[in-house]
Amino acid sequence: MTEQELIKAALAEDLAGGVDITSQATIAADATSVADFVARMNGVIAGINIAHAVLAEVGLTDVTLFKKDGDQVSAGDVLITVRGNTRAILLAERTALNFFGHLSGIATLTSKWVAEVSGTKCQVRDTRKTTPGMRTIEKYAVRMGGGTNHRMNLSDAALIKDNHIAAAGGVVAAFAQVRSAYPKAEIEIEVDNLAQLKEVLPQQPDLVLLDNMSPELCAQAVALAKGTCKLEASGGITIENARAYAEAGVDYIAVGALTHSAPNFDIGLDMEVE
């Protein structure tokens, strides 16, 4: 789903085929206002252009953006100012804030994880644990927070997980089957222990996912791999132990929480009727 399709769907959901009965009853059709989108907390923003697009969708064109996606902002910073029809501003308000706050929450949380592993080679990566229909913009928000994206969809690359391995009859068999069917695809394979890692390394995978291994086991995996492939730690990783994993020498840590558990970033709309 494109950004514009998301915006249209969100606005349509809010109106549900009707009108904003509160604004219709209390605000004159020709009333105008000026409104500021204001950060209520410190963090990294994402989605300012989507908020702008929401405003444009309801016919508001006198809009000034004071920040850009990826900027660090402080509580009290004015992010956007819009001037125009009061009813239109209020129609756009919740949809714009929903997108803007959600994506800025992802960017802010990602930036905290990135800060935890700073000074190491380790990168923070997202997963496919995204809100249905919003994967593209949520992964964009991860990038704005300094993280990197894992595959966007199932056809981008192969990720051979435990269920694939069980169905295929083992890690080597699973890898061989994918390589045979899709010889040009990037292949990542999940291993649960060092014995499986030793099995799969001769197959020359592009990347190995170390599932639910401790930082100590990850360090041993790094020593075994000797730089022949990238290594990604996943499972059991928290922001408190992220640095231990990074210092173990893995190339990536996979963090589903970036998209499925990011708290909303508080942004308010302060409006004055002209």
User: Structural class of the secondary structure composition?
Assistant: alpha/beta
Given the C-alpha coordinates, what overall shape results?
elongated
Looking at CATH, which topology of the largest domain would you report? TIM Barrel
Question: What fraction of residues sit in β-strands?
Answer: 15-25%
CATH architecture call of the largest domain: Alpha-Beta Barrel
Tell me the total number of β-strands: 12
Under CATH at level 1, the class of the largest domain stands as: Alpha Beta
Biggest beta sheet summary: 6 strands, parallel
Number of domains: 2
The gyration radius over C-alpha positions equals 23 Å
The CATH homologous superfamily of the largest domain is named: Aldolase class I
Number of helices: 11
- Low-confidence segments, given as residue ranges, are none
- What gap, in angstroms, lies between the N and C termini? 37 Å
> Which sequence of SSEs, written as H and E, runs from N to C?
HHEEHEEEHEHEHHEHEHEHEHE
Mean pLDDT: 97
Fraction in helix: 40-55%
